[in-house]
Specification:
The chain has 2 helices and 5 strands. The protein is of the alpha+beta class. It has one domain. A 5-stranded antiparallel beta sheet has the order 2-1-5-4-3. The protein starts with a strand and ends with a strand.
Length: 94
């Protein structure tokens, strides 16, 4: 029996854009539920680009290599956030 699990990692910075806090990791068995959560956070990051001109990176390589997706705000050096955040989702086949 094959089982897919979806792992979401939320990460970001505290007092400065190079001071990471401990990432939050969530595990889902339901694809829809996992992508709903991921998309909600991703949309907030994209909205900050529109509202505050905080740019972001999207990691397309992750999609090919790990069946996932990742979006990360740029830090202060690159027209970015003082406390950038990011979220990643991957699917593991068990």
């Amino acid at each position: 029996m094959n089982i897919d699990i979806y792992i979401i990692t939320e990460f970001g910075c505290d007092s400065g854009y190079n001071d990471m806090y401990t990432p939050r990791v969530l595990v889902f068995k339901d694809r829809e539920e996992a992508y709903k959560y991921y998309t909600n956070v991703k949309d907030k990051i994209i909205k900050e680009k529109v509202d505050y001109d905080i740019d972001f990176y999207i990691d397309y390589k992750l999609r090919v290599e790990n069946n996932g997706e990742c979006i990360i705000q740029k830090g202060m050096d690159d027209n970015g956030a003082k406390r950038p955040i990011g979220i990643m989702i991957t699917c593991q086949h068990l």
